[in-house]
Amino acid sequence: MFNHSGNYEFQISRKYDSRSYYTFTPKPLCSLTDNVLPMDEQMMMLISQAHRLLGILEGISRYIPDIDTYINLLMKKEAHLSCQIDGITTPFYDILDSNSEKTKNAMAIINCVTAIQYAQRKTVSNQLICEIQGIALKDSGCKNIGKFRETQIFLKPYVSSNIQEYNPTAPEDLESALDDFEKFMTADDNIDVLIKSALVHYQFEIIHPFEKGNGRVGRILAMLMLLQNKVLSKPVISLSYDLFHDKAEYFDRLSSTQLNGNYAQWVKFFIKAIIVAADNSIKQIESFIAIRNKNIEKIMVLGKASKNAMLVYKKIEKNPIIKIPSVADELNSSFNTVAKVVEAMVGCGILKQANNQSRHRHFIYEDYVKIFDRV
Questions:
Q1: Mapped to the 3 state alphabet, what secondary structure does 201-219 carry?
Q2: Contact in structure between 106 and 91 (CB atoms under 8 Å)
Q3: At what angle do helices 67-85 and 263-300 cross, to 10 degrees?
Q4: In the prediction, which pLDDT does 159 show?
Q5: Are strands 6-12 and 2-3 parallel, antiparallel or unpaired?
Q6: Three-state DSSP class for 273?
Q7: Which of 27, 306, 312, 339 has its CA 20 to 30 A from that of 213?
Q8: C-beta of residue 66 within 8 angstroms of C-beta of residue 291
Q9: Which of 243, 236, 235 is CA-nearest to residue 198?
Q10: What pLDDT, on the 0 to 100 scale, is given for residue 140?
Q11: What's the confidence (pLDDT) of residue 97?
Q12: So where are the chain's domains?
């Protein structure tokens, strides 16, 4: 039986004493028509506003010196928020301290960062999706990472039911569903990339092709659509920023689209999230530039220490929580030289001691971290 968004399939489980349930295979995206996605005035206004902000963001990313320094921390924040949406929580500071022992949750976030970095220059495909999941779920204890699932999964506790309730696509239907999904992702068509990104994310979530990590992979995939279609040349936006804030509505919109086939309401919601995220990134970059200029001015008046202070400053922009011995090793400098520079940077308000120990001291570039840790 079909509703507007897909097909419910009645299943009888051999594994669970012949209990019954339904699985859901979403309607192929390649079959969507203009009637399903009407370009009303609100849709056109949202698309226009989003493209305007993304255009500003792209311009900034091309002409701001050392933008990759900003992107490095932004992607850590994106991974942090995306993992939080999936219920993986740890303080943001824990993933910034390169010298600390990492918890399982912190490693999950770091793996997500690695997956984003790996994928951003790749061409989207089902094979790449598997590679992303394999990296993101490394050492997670999950079986069959990097492969589409071969077993049924249930997002709610398994209960035998004759009611048509959503369960992810059945394993035997995955191949055809994912073939269509890949065709839609890679098709050279006239669909606006923002609409396409929204639909790709929705379809991936509803198919739920992996045993674990579908949410994180799906959000990375939405970003890749913007990069592959040259809306952005670098990942200067955190799509999870607004989705995290509106987590309840985010899940509700996914669910209601699956139930009633109202793709337009989902696309509008997702484009609004892009607008909020793009605007936030623009403001973050403005703060990044202002803080950078202010602190470089402070460094320039440190006299003989200025040269070494600039070397340390470049380190703290990449890793904003540091220990003196580690920085000394990286710069091939003496402990005392770096210690004097760090003390000078503490004195002028660039760095702050992050712990209360007299030995094994940690220092943090707090103003910089606060740009990203307002969520």
A1: HHHHHHHCCCCCCHHHHHH
A2: no
A3: 140
A4: 59
A5: antiparallel
A6: helix
A7: 27
A8: no
A9: 243
A10: 86
A11: 83
A12: 2-284, 301-372
Burial of residue 64, with CB atoms counted within 10 A of its CB: 0-12 exposed, 13-18 middle, 19 or more buried: middle
At residue 101, the pLDDT reads 78
Cα 30 to chain center, whole Å?
A: 26
pLDDT of residue 2: 42
CA dihedral for 239, 174, 267, 196, sign (positive or negative): positive
**Measured between alpha carbons, how far is 341 from 304 in angstroms, rounded to an integer?**
10
- Give CA–CA dist 237/13, Å, rounded: 43
d(CA 169, CA 136): 22
The DSSP bridge pattern shows strands 2-3 and 321-322 to be unpaired
What amino acid occupies position 205? E
User: Minimal CA–CA distance to 320: which of 354, 347, 348?
Assistant: 354
pLDDT of 100 reads: 75
User: In terms of Cα–Cα distance, which of 153, 170, 115, 119 is closest to 137?
Assistant: 115
Please check whether residue 84 is in contact with residue 99, taking contact to mean a CB–CB distance below 8 angstroms.
Answer: no
3-state secondary structure 128-157: HHHHHHHHHCCCCCCCCCCCCCCCCCCCCC
Q: Which stretches of the chain drop beneath a pLDDT of 50? A: 1-2, 375
Give the neighbor-by-neighbor strand order of the sheet with 321-322.
321-322, 363-364, 352-353
Find the helix packing angle between 263-300 and 41-63, rounded to 10°.
20
Q: Are 332 and 367 in contact (CB under 8 A)?
A: no
Q: Among the CATH numbers 3.30.565.10, 3.40.47.10, 1.10.10.10, 1.20.1250.20, which is that of 301-372?
A: 1.10.10.10
DSSP letter string over 14-25? Answer: TTTTT-EEEEEE
Give the global pTM.
Answer: 0.92
| Cβ neighbours, 10 Å, residue 112 | 30
> Which DSSP string do the residues of 62-130 spell out, in sequence order?
HHSTTHHHHHHHHHHHHHHHHHHHTT----HHHHHBTTSPPPHHHHHHHHHHHHHHHHTTSPP-HHHHH
User: What is each CA distance from 319 to 81, 159, 170, 234, 342, in whole angstroms?
Assistant: 19, 48, 44, 20, 14
The token pair that represents 105 in the structure block: 């949750």
Please report, as a single letter, which amino acid is at residue 374.
Answer: R
